[in-house]
């Protein structure tokens, strides 16, 4: 079936989402997908959505508020609380419009949205969770941030938090050649731009306040509460997320499969690792049926 564009109301804004499949067929499970920090669904998620649709799953892929065509009071705001609200709004919409229950939903996240999928699953029972190279422990991730930039970045983040009370923002680049950015791994600049379509104008900037709050986002502390079948994909060469933290978190999930690949954080979208990852996803999804 043709992809359908929809808008989901949330407070005074709208979340733009793409639907793949037949959502009136209640025999099918539904995969909900969203991108990582600063990302939009056009940056690599469409091919994954089409792949799952061919596997006879329904797929809903959306952009968080402030990204893509989704509206938002603060453009490109990266905030765990508001983005978790976005996920819950999508889940509620699918239930109201198509009678899709949480037990029919598979949460799919990558990087920062992987943290959202894990956090949501710690509070409710879903059919399954696929967490690709997920943000697992903000404190652990801060140990990989360039030490010479940590204080200057924190100072800018505090400025942004102060300005927020006046309705203003102070941004930082998502990635930068000199690594003074939100994502400061050695491979992040080339890696991130490699997933941005050439025809797309991607705004490489987000409010800096995320630097001051990301260390407190630690899904590893609630992973033991997850009851859903969960597939955790780890990247051994991840420059943003310590692989030791990913391994530790995965062990806490009661019903989990952990698969580790010798790849980097952005190799989810590139061959040969993309095919290997999709093969792992395929086996996991078949197991859920």
TrEMBL record:
Domain spans labelled Serine aminopeptidase S33: 28-130
The protein's name: Alpha/beta hydrolase
Keyword Ribonucleoprotein: no
GO molecular function: carboxylic ester hydrolase activity
The organism's place on the tree of life at top rank: Bacteria
Family from the record: Belongs to the AB hydrolase superfamily. FUS2 hydrolase family.
Pfam entry (one): Hydrolase_4
Keywords noted in UniProt: Hydrolase
PANTHER family named among the record's database cross-references: DIENELACTONE HYDROLASE DOMAIN-CONTAINING PROTEIN-RELATED, POLYKETIDE TRANSFERASE AF380
């Amino acid at each position: 079936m043709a992809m359908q564009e929809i808008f989901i109301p949330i407070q005074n804004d709208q979340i733009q989402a793409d639907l793949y499949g037949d959502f009136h067929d209640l025999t099918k499970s539904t995969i909900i997908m969203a991108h990582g920090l600063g990302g939009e669904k056009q940056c690599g998620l469409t091919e994954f959505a089409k792949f799952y649709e061919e596997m006879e799953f329904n797929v809903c892929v959306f952009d968080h508020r402030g990204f893509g065509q989704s509206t938002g009071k603060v453009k490109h705001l990266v905030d765990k609380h508001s983005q978790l609200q976005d996920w819950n709004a999508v889940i509620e919409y699918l239930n109201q419009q198509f009678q899709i229950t949480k037990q029919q939903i598979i949460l799919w996240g990558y990087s920062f949205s992987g943290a959202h999928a894990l956090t949501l699953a710690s509070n409710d029972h879903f059919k399954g969770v696929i967490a690709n190279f997920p943000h697992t422990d903000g404190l652990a991730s801060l140990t990989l941030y360039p030490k010479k930039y940590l204080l200057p970045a924190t100072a800018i983040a505090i400025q942004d938090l102060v300005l927020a009370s006046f309705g203003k923002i102070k941004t930082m680049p998502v990635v930068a050649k000199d690594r003074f950015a939100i994502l400061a791994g050695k491979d992040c600049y080339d890696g991130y731009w490699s997933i941005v379509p050439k025809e797309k104008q991607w705004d490489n900037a987000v409010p800096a306040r995320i630097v001051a709050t990301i260390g407190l986002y630690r899904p590893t502390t609630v992973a033991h509460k997850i009851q859903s079948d969960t597939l955790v994909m780890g990247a051994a060469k991840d420059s943003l997320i310590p692989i030791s933290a990913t391994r530790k978190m995965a062990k806490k999930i009661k019903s989990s499969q952990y698969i580790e690949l010798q790849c980097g954080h952005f190799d989810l979208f590139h061959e040969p690792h993309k095919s290997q990852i999709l093969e792992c996803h395929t086996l996991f999804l078949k197991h859920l049926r």
